[in-house]
Amino acid sequence: MVSNMINANPVVYETKERRAVNSAADFDEYAVEEIDQLEVFDILSYFFILRISNFFALILKHHIRDIKDPEHPFSLEQLKVVTEDSIDVDDKKSYVRVTFTPTVEHCSLATVIGLCLRVKLIRSLPSRYKIDIRVAPGTHATEAAVNKQLNDKERVAAALDNPSIIAMLDECLAPSYI
After folding, report:
1. With contact defined as beta carbons under 8 Å apart, do 132 and 95 qualify?
2. What are the CA-CA distances from residue 18 to residues 27, 44, 63, 94, 127 (Å)?
3. What is the pLDDT of residue 69?
């Protein structure tokens, strides 16, 4: 986490209830299932146990809602940086757009938050999806510059080659067992 806080006292909100895993059909890796807004929001925390022969595997899926803020020990959902309504999915066109809202308009970590979202979705969605990450209009002082950085393949690739940025992303993306 960052030592000099930009937003020392963020507002922390209640989180939405998580949907439950219902049946064995939910575990069918060959089933064709549309990816929707809630699926992307939840991409990523429920625990379930699979029985494979005589072995049991504990599976943890980590949601984008659970990505940790780089500055605070709270999730992006708790800070309302990301909400289910801020996600647009078109499964037929293989397109996902996540619009996030930084907690303050001069947030210097907006690009890190956007990179966390992009990396989590790249790791979780099928490769056919085009991922678009945006700062919500009017919520950041340098909105256009941040959006340009987050959606430029070369800039994203350069950022992901930087070991200190990767360390920060890994810290934000690490599962929390709450």
Report:
1. yes
2. 17, 12, 10, 25, 26
3. 92
